[in-house]
Specification:
Strand order of the largest sheet of chain A: 1-5-6-12-11-10-7-9-8
Distance between the termini of chain A: 42 Å
GO molecular function (chains A, B): ATP binding; histidine-tRNA ligase activity
Oligomer: homodimer
Structural class of chain A: alpha+beta
InterPro entries (chains A, B): aa-tRNA-synth_II (IPR006195), aa-tRNA-synth_II/BPL/LPL (IPR045864), Anticodon-bd (IPR004154), Anticodon-bd_dom_sf (IPR036621), His-tRNA-ligase (IPR015807), HisRS-like_core (IPR041715), HisRS/HisZ (IPR004516)
CATH superfamily of the largest domain in chain A: Bira Bifunctional Protein, Domain 2
Keywords (chains A, B): Aminoacyl-tRNA synthetase, ATP-binding, Cytoplasm, Ligase, Nucleotide-binding, Protein biosynthesis
Largest interface: A-B, 104 and 103 residues
Number of helices of chain A: 15
Protein name (chains A, B): Histidine--tRNA ligase
CATH architecture of the largest domain in chain A: 2-Layer Sandwich
Radius of gyration of chain A: 29 Å
Helix content of chain A: 25-40%
Pfam families (chains A, B): HGTP_anticodon (PF03129), tRNA-synt_His (PF13393)
C-alpha cells in the first residue's frame, strides 16, 4: 500500500491535536452536565425521507447502500427503505423525542456530541465530516421563553471555560424572528422567507446587492428595502437597541403586535445576558439564520479576531421541533461546530498540548529478564493514578530516555539495582529506585509507593501557545 | 410525523442507559490512558478499495453516495472514488499509521473508541452500527513479543474495573497461530486457512461436522482431522496445557519449529497472566479467529455466565498491520464490542444508573419574577461543582418536587423568602434557603455557598441491579 493522503473535507488530528480536541469535548460535556443536560447519542443514520423533509438540504445528504444489497438479502431491506447519514443532530433528536416520548420527562434537556456528515464542497472551516456539540431543551406542548435566555448563556459559559486554554473569547449575536417578521409584515412585505433569505446574504454580497434581491425576490419597494437594511444595521450590547428598533418602526409607520412581542423577548435576553455573561451577548438585527425553521430567538457566535471563520455556535427556537399529530414539541437549542473550532486552533497554532501521550512516566527496563520488575513498578504507579508505561526494550538508558523525550513524557523511572561486580573486579553498589525529570536532568531516589509528579505533569495539559 | 419506530440493528439508549454506556466508556478510557495509550479518532469513511482489500468482508460494507452526486459537481468527486463506512477500527488505524508515520513515535500505542458499521443481518448482540473500543501497539519494522502479553492484560484490567458496577467477570481465551499452524503443517496439512476456517466453526456446528469439513475442505484424512480436534480440545488456565500439546504432537509424530516457537510464546503469556491477572486468562487451543490475518497470539473474551453472547473482546498479533513497501508495521491489539456488552447489561437489567439526568439539585422557583434569584442559586452551586438546574415554572412546590422526582434528582432547593403578610393579616416569617432530600423528606436550612450533597449523590452512579 502506497502512503495514503488525507481526504479533503474529512479532518483527522495527530495524537497531540486529539488531546486538544478531547480537552475541549470534556470541558463542554462538564459544563453541559453541570447545567443538568442529559447526554444522549443517536444512531448515525436516519431514513432518507426524514432527512429530506426540509428539501433545501437534499444536496448535502450521504445516502447509504450495502455493497451486496439485493444480491444476498431478500428480507431485511426488502422495503427498499433508504438510509442516509444525518447532517445535523437536530433532525435525529426530534425523531428520538417522538420515538421515546413516553419514557422522557419534559421539559427534556439533552446534550449530544457526535459526528455529522454533509456532502458539501470542502472549504476552510467547512467539512464533509465534522463534530457538533448540541444542547437543546424540548417541551411537550409548551416551552417557556426563559429557556431562550438560558441556553445561549450556557453556551457562553461553556465557550468561556475554553479561554483558560487559549481559545479566543466569543461574541454571541442574538436576534428574534418575531422582531424581523413583525417589522417586515408591518412594512407590508408578506414574503418573509424571501426577505430573510436576502438579508442572510448581507455579509456575503453587501447592501447594494441585497437591495436588488429584496426588490426582485421579496417584491419590496426601494423604501421597504431600505427599511429592511436599516433594521439589519441595528446592533449593540445593551437594551438601547430596543429603542432604536422602536424608533425605526415609528419612522416607517410600522405597527405590529408580533414586533412588540419580539422586542420584549429580545430585551429580556439582553438584560439577563448583561448580568450573567457581561460583554458576551450582542443584539444584532441582521442575524437571520437563512431558511431554518426558527420562530423566536436566533443565535450565531463568532470567535473574536476570527470573525471570517463564520459562526462556531448557532441555533434558535423552534415552535415545532417535532410533532406526532397529537402533541407538538417546541424546542430551543444551539450547536457548536467543534471541528471548525478545533481546526482553527490547531492550524493557526493557537493552542497546544504539553505532550502527545497520556504517559507521565516511562519505566526503564534494565534487562529483558528484569522486565517483570519494571511492569510491577508501572502497575504501582498506575494504582495511584499516575499514567505509566514500560520502555519497549532493555536498550541503553540514553535510548530509553530518548523514547520518553520524543513523546514529551517528563519522567523516566530507573528500577532499583542490587550490588554487582564488573569483569575488572569493581563493585557497583546497589541503587534504589530513581526517577529523572528529563527536562531538568534532576535524578532522585524515589519510592514507587508514594512518589507523585507535580500536579501539572500528571496528565497532558492544553494551553495557549503565546499566552 | 407519525411516531417513529426503532431501526433494527441500530441500537440507541434512553438517557439512563446512556449514563451506563458513558460510565463504561469513561472507565475504559481512563484505564487505557493510565497505560499510556494515546487516543485518536479517525474519519468514519475509507476509500472502498481499501475496505475491500481482504475480500471476505465485502458484503458488510456500507457504500456512500452523495444524493446529488454528478448532478451538481464535476470536480471534487470526478475521480469517482467511492467511499464506504469503516467496518472496524483496524483498517483505518493501519491507514492512519501509514499516513502519519513521519509524525508518530514507534512503538505507537493508541486507543480508539468509535462507531463502526456492518451491513450484516441484525441478531442478538450483532448490530449494523456499534461502538468498538480498541487498543493496539504498532511498531516500525519490529514489535517485541512482550506486547502480546501486555495487551490482553490491559484489557483484563479495563474489563475488571467494570465489575465494580456489576459487569460480570470475563474470561480471556488465548491461543497462538504459530501453535496451530505448526501443528497442522507438522501433521501434513498444508491448507492452514481451510483448517482454521473449519475449526472456527466448532462451537457452532459441533465436532462431527468439523471432521467432515476438514476432510472435504482441508483435504484431511480421518486421523489428521481427529488430531486437529484433539488439539482444539486442549484448554486450561495454567502451563500444563503446553505439556499436553507437546504430548499430542509426540503422539501424532508432529515435529515443527513453528509449533515450538508458538508454545514458548503461549507459555510466556500464561505464566505472566497467572501473576498479573490471576484466573482471567485461559489457554484455549480452539480459538482460531477465522480468516483474520493474525500471525501470533489470538484472543477472545467471554462474559462469565453469558458465554452464548459470543466474544466481547477479540484480537491478536499481525506481523503486517500495514506496509508502505519500505517499512512493515507489525501490531498487536484487541477490540471491545462496547455495544454488545452494553446491550446485554441493559436488556438483562444487570446494571442501572441511579438517575436519568446529571442534575443533583433542582432549584425551585417561587415566582416567575423571582426566577433570577433561583438562577443565581443554581450558578452558586455549579461554581462549586454541583450539577443544578432551575425548575421550569413557578408551579406549586409539590409539582416542582415531582419534576425532580420523575428524573431521580435527589434534592430540591427552596430559595429564601422574606417576611410577608397574608390577606387575612397573618404574618408569614422570613425563611432562609432550604434544601430537601426528596427521598427521606428531610428539609434543612442550607447555605448556597457551602452546602454539599453526599459524595454518592453528586453525580449519577452506576451499579449492579442485584449486587
Amino acid at each position: 500500500m502506497a502512503r495514503p493522503t488525507p481526504l479533503s473535507g474529512f479532518p483527522e488530528w495527530r495524537p497531540d491535536g486529539r488531546i486538544v480536541e478531547q480537552h475541549i469535548l470534556d470541558t463542554l460535556r462538564r459544563t453541559f452536565e453541570l447545567h443538568g443536560f442529559a447526554g444522549i447519542e443517536t444512531r448515525a443514520v436516519e431514513p432518507l425521507d426524514q432527512l429530506l423533509r426540509k428539501g433545501e438540504t437534499s444536496k448535502e445528504v450521504y445516502v447509504l447502500r450495502r455493497l451486496q444489497e439485493g444480491a444476498d438479502d431478500g428480507g431485511a431491506d426488502a422495503r427498499g427503505d433508504q438510509l442516509g447519514l444525518h447532517f445535523d443532530l437536530t433532525v435525529p433528536f426530534a425523531r428520538y423525542v417522538l420515538e421515546n416520548a413516553g419514557h422522557l420527562a419534559f421539559p427534556f434537556r439533552r446534550y449530544q456530541i457526535q459526528k455529522v456528515w454533509r456532502g458539501e464542497r470542502p472549504q476552510d472551516g467547512r467539512f464533509r465530516e465534522f463534530v457538533q456539540a448540541d444542547i437543546d431543551v424540548v417541551g411537550a406542548g409548551e416551552l417557556p421563553y426563559h429557556y431562550e435566555v438560558e441556553l445561549p448563556l450556557v453556551m457562553a459559559e461553556a465557550l468561556g471555560e475554553l479561554q483558560a486554554i487559549g481559545v479566543p473569547p466569543v461574541r454571541i449575536l442574538v436576534n428574534n424572528r418575531k422582531v424581523a417578521e413583525g417589522f417586515y409584515r408591518g412594512l407590508g412585505l408578506s414574503d418573509v422567507d424571501a426577505v430573510l433569505r436576502s438579508i442572510d446574504k448581507l455579509d456575503k454580497v453587501g447592501p447594494d446587492v441585497v437591495v436588488q434581491l429584496l426588490e426582485a425576490e421579496a417584491g419590496a419597494t426601494r423604501t421597504q428595502a431600505m427599511a429592511c437594511l436599516e433594521l439589519a444595521a441595528v446592533s449593540g450590547p445593551d437594551t438601547s437597541v430596543i429603542q432604536r428598533v422602536r424608533d425605526l418602526a415609528s419612522a416607517y409607520q410600522v405597527t405590529s403586535e408580533l414586533l412588540e412581542v419580539g422586542l420584549v423577548e429580545l430585551e429580556a435576553l439582553i438584560t439577563a445576558a448583561a448580568v450573567r455573561a457581561p460583554g458576551v451577548v450582542v443584539a444584532d438585527l441582521k442575524i437571520a439564520r437563512g431558511l431554518d425553521y426558527y420562530t423566536g430567538s436566533v443565535y450565531e457566535t463568532v470567535l473574536v479576531g476570527h470573525e471570517q471563520l463564520g459562526s462556531i455556535c448557532s441555533g434558535g427556537r423552534y415552535d415545532t421541533l417535532a410533532s406526532d399529530g397529537t402533541t407538538t414539541y417546541p424546542g430551543v437549542g444551539l450547536s457548536i461546530g467543534v471541528s471548525r473550532l478545533v481546526s482553527r486552533l490547531l492550524n493557526a497554532d493557537l493552542v497546544r498540548a504539553s505532550r502527545s501521550v497520556p504517559t507521565a512516566v516511562v519505566v526503564a527496563v534494565t534487562t529483558e529478564e528484569g522486565r517483570a520488575e519494571s511492569d510491577a513498578i508501572a502497575a504501582a504507579l498506575r494504582a495511584r493514578g499516575i499514567p505509566a508505561e514500560v520502555a519497549p526494550a532493555a536498550a541503553k538508558f540514553g535510548k530509553q530516555i530518548k523514547f520518553a523525550d520524543r513523546r514529551g513524557v517528563p519522567f523516566v523511572w530507573f528500577p532499583a539495582t542490587t550490588e554487582s561486580t564488573r569483569a575488572d573486579g569493581t563493585v557497583v553498589p546497589a541503587q534504589p529506585d530513581q526517577v529523572k525529570d528529563i527536562r531538568s536532568g534532576d535524578q532522585v531516589a524515589a519510592d514507587r509507593a508514594s512518589w507523585m509528579p507535580p500536579a501539572a505533569d500528571l496528565w497532558p495539559t492544553v494551553s495557549a501557545v503565546n499566552p
